[in-house]
Amino acid sequence: MIREKQGRVFIDVRVQPRASRKRYECADGVVKLWVTAPPVDQKANEAVVEFVAEILSVRKSAVRIEKGLKSKNKVVSVEGLPLEKVVERLKC
């Protein structure tokens, strides 16, 4: 689910670490990300932040993992981009 609250857009994300290549898809309001980084020493989380920033064309500092630092299911927030633009860029 993608929603906006207090100037930030929150995105439900399901992460698949150690993928053979980076990619993403959007289904039923959940964005599924495949990242090549392993889930060790926060590398997968860093890769998630970088990939979301790349997809949305925002700086990495505008993206933050709000929930799920140790889980495949995460809530990522984006600052400085309206909900409509996030939906448009994710093609959700």
Entry keywords:
92 residues; alpha+beta; Conserved Hypothetical Protein Mth637, Chain: A; 6-stranded mixed beta sheet; 2 helices; 6 strands
Structural class: alpha+beta
What's the overall geometry? globular
Strand content is 35-45%
Low-confidence stretches: none
CATH H-tier superfamily: YggU-like
Distinct helical segment count: 2
What topology does this entry show?
Layout: E1 2-5, E2 8-16, E3 23-27, E4 30-34, H1 43-56, E5 63-67, E6 73-79, H2 83-90
Parallel strand pairs: 2-4
Antiparallel strand pairs: 1-2, 2-6, 3-4, 5-6
Explain this structure.
- The structure is a single chain.
- By secondary structure, the chain is α+β, with helices and mostly antiparallel strands.
- The protein has a single domain, classed as YggU-like (Conserved Hypothetical Protein Mth637, Chain: A, 2-Layer Sandwich).
- It has two helices and six strands.
- It is globular.
- The model has no long low-confidence stretch (mean pLDDT 95).
What can be said about this structure in brief?
The chain has helices spanning 43-56, 83-90; strands at 2-5, 8-16, 23-27, 30-34, 63-67, 73-79. The protein is α+β, with helices and mostly antiparallel strands and 92 residues long. The model has no long low-confidence stretch (mean pLDDT 95).
